[in-house]
Amino acid sequence: MGKLFDKYAVVTGGAGFLGSHLCDRLIGEGAHVTAIDNLITGDMRNIAHLVGNDHFRFVKHDVTEYIFVDGPVDYILHFASPASPIDYLKLPIQTLKVGSLGTHKALGLAKNKNARFLLASTSEIYGDPLIHPQPETYWGNVNPVGLRGVYDEAKRFAEAMTMAYQRYHAVQTRIVRIFNTYGPRMRINDGRAIPAFISQALRGEDVTVFGSGKQTRSVCYVDDLIEGIFRLLLSDIGDPVNIGNQSEISMLDLAKEVIQLTGSNSKLVFKELPEDDPKVRQPETTRAKKLLDWEARVDRKDGLRNTIAYFRTAMGLQG
């Protein structure tokens, strides 16, 4: 039997990229899962395979409104939010609302149900960092009035609200700071680097690199991330924990790697770097290794091959 046999979990944003993978893992561990999503950026195709499962139910709902869940709840995983620049630049107010009002409503449910609450935070709370790699003790370098501020500050507020509920209401809370993650179920038009590189390469289009391409990211395969989140959920760690791959790569090299793995003849083209785009991004993961016995294990090329295979199918390129 799984570690969560006969437990009840709620996943907000459960039809999204990460939320749907979390639903799979929780059900695999024996939990009964309620996925809540308003489908602004989520997709029912991500959870279609769970429909009809006795351990799964889906509720279409905006979590910035009062959240009602009948029956017991043991765990709440708050993953509802636009998460890519293309989304939160198009939906700035909704992004701020789900980080503030949505987090408040989800924490209220946790308090009411005496449930453990896990917040999906982000490496974006570090902004364009002046410390590299970024430890959990770093307070960040964020432009609150810039275009990206709607997402960065929504998540920073969400962390503050979560800690307030932990301290004032004694709610059991966990905070995961998620670094760049990729894998199957990302949207083709997601707007983030890996979906853009893969979809452009598979179509034989020019692959767009912003700036010089020397800016770096540390990309983590989704299976590794979900394992880290699951370990954090079951731990007794109340302070934020970075979960991400420590292997750093430039955007230019990542684009070249995708072109090579897809077998594409695409050419590289360069465009102006977006406002406040971080120049480096790499997690300091000592806490995760020490406290959770976790580290990323999936080789980047293996993860990219899996993701490319998913995109081929999603784009109708496999006969």
Fold topology:
Blueprint lengths: L7 E5 L4 H12 L3 E6 L18 E5 L14 E4 L6 H6 L1 H22 L2 E7 L26 H21 L3 E6 L2 E2 L10 H11 L3 E4 L5 E3 L1 E2 H12 L7 E3 L4 E3 H12 L5 E4 L14 H7 L7 H15 L5
Parallel strand pairs: 1-2, 1-4, 2-3, 4-5, 5-6, 6-11, 7-10, 8-13
Antiparallel strand pairs: 9-12
Helix pairs in contact: 1-6, 3-4, 5-7, 5-9, 7-9
Could you describe the 3D structure shown?
With 319 residues, this protein is of the alpha/beta class. It has a domain at 8-182 and 222-245 and 282-297: Rossmann fold (3-Layer(aba) Sandwich). It has 9 helices and 13 strands. It has helices at 17-28, 85-90, 92-113, 149-169, 193-203, 222-233, 251-262, 286-292, 300-314, and strands at residues 8-12, 32-37, 56-60, 75-78, 116-122, 173-178, 181-182, 207-210, 216-218, 220-221, 241-243, 248-250, 268-271. The chain has a 7-stranded parallel β-sheet, sandwiched between helices. It has a two-stranded parallel ribbon with strand order 7-10. A two-stranded parallel sheet has the order 8-13. Strand 5 (116-122), helix 4 and strand 6 form a beta-alpha-beta unit. Helix 5 packs parallel to helix 7, helix 5 (193-203) crosses helix 9 (300-314) and helix 7 (251-262) packs across helix 9 (300-314). The longest helix is centred in the first third of the chain and has 22 residues, at 92-113. It is globular and about 55 Å long.
